Amino acid sequence: MADDSELSEQEKLARAQREELERQKTAKEIEETKNKIKESKKKQDEDYKSSFRGKVLSPSIDDLKSGDFKRIFLLPFILPFRIISFFINYKYFWLFFILIIAFFIWLFIMNLLIGGGISVFGTQFDILLSKTPISAITTPVRTFFEEPVGTVAQYGTFKPPETVEKRKPQGVEIENFHAKKSIHRPELDKIETVANVKIYALEDSPTQVKFSCKKEDPLSTDLFTGGESHEKIIISGELDNSDSVYVFENQDKSVYVQCEFEPSGKIAYDVFGKIDRQKTIQEKITLTAVYENFIVRSRLKVYTLSKSVLNSLESRGSNPFKEFKINDPLISSDRSVISEQLRAGPVLLSLILLDSQPLTNGPSYLLGLELYNDKFGWNGKISNLKSLNIFLPNGFSPAEGRCNEFSYQNDILTLKTEVLRQFAEKEIDQERFFCDFIIDSAVSESLDFSLINAEVKFDYAFEEYTTATISQGLIQSTTKVGEVNA
Length: 486
Fold this sequence. Notes:
CATH topology of the largest domain: Immunoglobulin-like
Number of helices: 11
Radius of gyration: 40 Å
Shape: flat
CATH architecture of the largest domain: Sandwich
Strand content: 25-35%
Largest sheet: 8 strands, antiparallel
Helix content: 25-40%
CATH class of the largest domain: Mainly Beta
């Protein structure tokens, strides 16, 4: 009986040992499985990062380091496609797709809320909700979910700037300017150039455009010598020997302009001073269309008020313009006044008064005049500033020693001749002139205004370039006279 009992205890011990071994084996297998999963995930992450570097980062860095302008310029456009193609091969593609859909939903809602001047801030949004039924908002949203592509096409159509703001072209367009012959023989062939020219008329006045051609050697070296060339302008549809085109207001005009030069006398010489007819030279030809003596005028309202009344109003925190019920759209909230340009043109002319209005007698005021080329609407340049005048109203005069760029006579400030000379050969982009003035007459107790006028006269030029190739060697026989006689 004792032997059976001992055997049973041994069996129990053996069973416990087997269970412990099985538990340890299972735990070891679980640990190995975890390690394998961890290693697999680590390897997958490394492969993911390596693939991203190989497909997206490395090519982009190579593009930046290449120094190739074309590759660098196209990189911002190519990079999104590289990223998209990378996501397509991985599980994150769907996340990317969901983000794209969310972006279009956001774009649609923002277009709905802020389109047409409606703001989500302040009371404007409350007004929208009070006047717009809920169905007007929910229906387009539901339609978007049912047909997102069609809805985006309907509500989010992109319009290029030229269709949004239909601004008429300005000035002169010179197209297809070229020499009739590809190669000219020196001292034999005339140089003839032709161009198609479109002149856009002004809306408020007729104008006249003068054409000229100039031929020059862009290299300007001592290797070339020769006589002068004589230029002739031929304009289709215009009178003979006329180099100008008259354009009526609101009547655009197209002309065919031809320039003729006498045969070039320039001959190439080698380093030994002998004529080298094998050399080819190119001469630069410039076609210029000029608005001569173009005039632009501007004016600025100057409100005046007696000092006692002005001080009284300002001490009470009252706006003089509101007090006198002046409703002028040119008056800003800071009591500055915007100038008006009276004639449209390629130059924008504005008068600037740095002080708040109204003005009073006693202190001096700084008046600025700004002149700049309207590059947004025109494609030419201010080639010659001829005059600039500021007309002061009665009772206004320049402060002594504070208008050095101007001369003053009969209430007119005129830009001095020595100042104008600085702009004779200079292309003007933007210039400012300043003058201090005072009000030396009595100012009334009511809010009155006077006008400061300005006028600028200038030439405005449009230019286009081409070249004429001059060569004897390119158009002569390869055989020599002696060889033929032999």
